[in-house]
Amino acid sequence: IADVMKDFATLFLFGETSRSVTQLLTLLQEPHPRRWYWTPPWRTQADVRLQTGTKPPAPQDRFGLRKRLKWVMRKVLFTPKAFFSFKITVSCVMLHLLSLGTSDPQRRQVVVWANVTFVLVTNAAAFGKVLQRAALRTCGTLIGGAYAHFVCYCSGANGWAILAMVAVFAVPAFWAQYNFKDYSYAFGLSMVTIGLVISDQYQKAREGGDIDPWAITIPRVVATLTGCVLSLVVSRVIFPYRTGKELRKGMCALMQQLWIRWNLITRAFRDDTLLDFNVMLYMETLSSKDLQALRELLNVAKVEPHVEPFPAAALTLILDRLQDWLDVLLLMRVAVAQELRTS
């Protein structure tokens, strides 16, 4: 555990190195009378209060409005999900305003497709995921448009021929979508593009019109490229999602959970009380899921462009040691439970 603390302090996750390591090692070696929650490094005042044991005088809040407002701002307004929803909402409103300014229904349809592309691509949040999803969506649209052209010019208005040629493409597409999870987004979108183009051209052919798949393929490709470029600009320039910062925050939250479990186990052993196994199992499951999510976030962060060197090796080492700590806490919980049962 001390090695994990030192690695965190090296990456400035606990503020000043010497003070933080000394403070945390002291807390580990001596039993603390109350449950201790780790304070993020950007809260220097709270860190000092934790070290000195002093608290500022509470402001006068007769009706509890200030406390409720702080809770709403912290839990509802200033969360990553709320900020991401605000970003999506503002961007969608801008795109819809652009669509209302065009009188041509085809241009309005292009704007709507671009809006859908932007929302689906930006939903990945992290820039590495956004870049990957934008590339897959563009490739899927191009592949689907090319095959739709081939089907339209070869089958004409014959519905059975169209159905057979779509089935020939759908079987390997769904097989690849099932076996290649990382590229399933492109294969699924290619089928959507084929369906849109072929259904429109088949209806025109049944009505006696000319087959012109370019009339719907080009606007869809343009809309896809526009939505992807806009999502990259928003995710990287306007509202950047700092994967490294989110990774450090997630590590800090996981450390807090592990420290709470440490306190629960040591308190049960010291006070000779039974553990609440439902709570412990829930916390173990939650910590394992958080650690898996942090590993996925680290893999995404490795491919992102960074202005300064990204300590990928150090963060990988910390995640490995956190996994060791999870295993140790699990063994401690089992050992304490067995000893309490026998006694």
UniProtKB/TrEMBL annotation:
Coiled-coil regions listed in the entry: none
Gene Ontology, cellular component aspect: membrane
Domain of life: Eukaryota
InterPro entries from the UniProt entry: IVT-Associated, Memb_transporter_dom
Subcellular location: Membrane
Integral membrane bound transporter domain mapped to chain residues: 111-234
Topology relative to the membrane: Multi-pass membrane protein
Entry's transmembrane regions: 76-98, 110-127, 157-176, 214-239
Keyword flag Transmembrane: yes
Protein name from the UniProt record: Integral membrane bound transporter domain-containing protein
Keywords recorded for this protein, A-Z: Membrane, Transmembrane, Transmembrane helix
